[in-house]
Write a structure and sequence with these properties.
homohexamer; alpha+beta; Macrophage Migration Inhibitory Factor; two-stranded parallel sheet; two-stranded antiparallel ribbon; 2 helices; 4-OT (chains A, B, C, D, E, F); Tautomerase (chains A, B, C, D, E, F); isomerase activity (chains A, B, C, D, E, F); Tautomerase/MIF_sf (chains A, B, C, D, E, F)
Amino acid sequence: MPYVKIEVTREGVTRKQKQELIKGVTDLITTVLNKDPHLTHVVIQEVNLDDWGYAGEQTSVLREQGITADRH
Amino acid sequence: MPYVKIEVTREGVTRKQKQELIKGVTDLITTVLNKDPHLTHVVIQEVNLDDWGYAGEQTSVLREQGITADRH
Amino acid sequence: MPYVKIEVTREGVTRKQKQELIKGVTDLITTVLNKDPHLTHVVIQEVNLDDWGYAGEQTSVLREQGITADRH
Amino acid sequence: MPYVKIEVTREGVTRKQKQELIKGVTDLITTVLNKDPHLTHVVIQEVNLDDWGYAGEQTSVLREQGITADRH
Amino acid sequence: MPYVKIEVTREGVTRKQKQELIKGVTDLITTVLNKDPHLTHVVIQEVNLDDWGYAGEQTSVLREQGITADRH
Amino acid sequence: MPYVKIEVTREGVTRKQKQELIKGVTDLITTVLNKDPHLTHVVIQEVNLDDWGYAGEQTSVLREQGITADRH
């Protein structure tokens, strides 16, 4: 009976990326925990940049300063 | 001091249905746990169909295939 | 596809009370939203009195002062 | 590694107020727990008045009755 | 800035399985969303069988009836 | 009607520190949003080090490597 919530900043996540996250997380749980995927629910919640704070700053401010969350 | 979060797919839940959920959950907690309803908060969160995954699939895809969550 | 989280202070909630909450919430959602109960998950999370704050005070302190959350 | 979620009713919270909440919570955790702020994330979630229930009533109904959540 | 919460029933999940879930989810998000893993936090929350309800029943009752969540 | 959840790793947070967090967050919300503190609930959730992942690693492993979350 797993339930997974994925919270990410709202920065153009596509429908296809969401599908990959849902499929990937469900497969991972099925493999690692041997769970029936029909009991696994995954919810993605996108959060506006003004609403996500990191190190005391709004992400929207960080982005204006050119600071991204991209992998280097 | 109860707090309740209800997450449902966004599929036309009406204002009246939300009121019934809020009233029903609060009454249930008042009855079962003998809690003062003024200390009970209920939050409903609707989730877009692209953002809710079940069995590894987006709910939006399941709906396109004619698969609903309706009671039979 | 509903998921419900019920957070309550840890103050002797019995197994039977939990069952009544789970049954009651699931029945409510089935009735109000016409959802298949096999897609409804309910999670109860008990919170220690030191960890739940109300009006700026720990619930454990409120209880020591004789202030309960009981219905009057 | 702290993560903080702040849920409030959607009633005109400004960008500046959000920044004050994010800055204030992060500073508080840094001071009280001595945590590196680069490991602290704060997420604000605004909830529509129809979706927040208090004492069994939708907040939107309470507001129509002139009942606010303002400090007196 | 992703944050992921994984809720599972407390049924003997090992430290190694938790590590696989944390590593797997972080890698997935890094790959799909191109996020810096140093901004990804994953929290696993185990839930007692009495506290997880499915289809209106406590999971502990389902397990007593021989009903598992295992993949077939 | 604010509700705040604070999740931190379980690393010896004292009762006094929890009280400071609860008091501090409630005061902050009262000041910034002008909310009645009797409508503000704060829940602290401590998470075991094996259950909190950062950058793909369990925090328990990071601690064994001498990596802390302390402010420098």
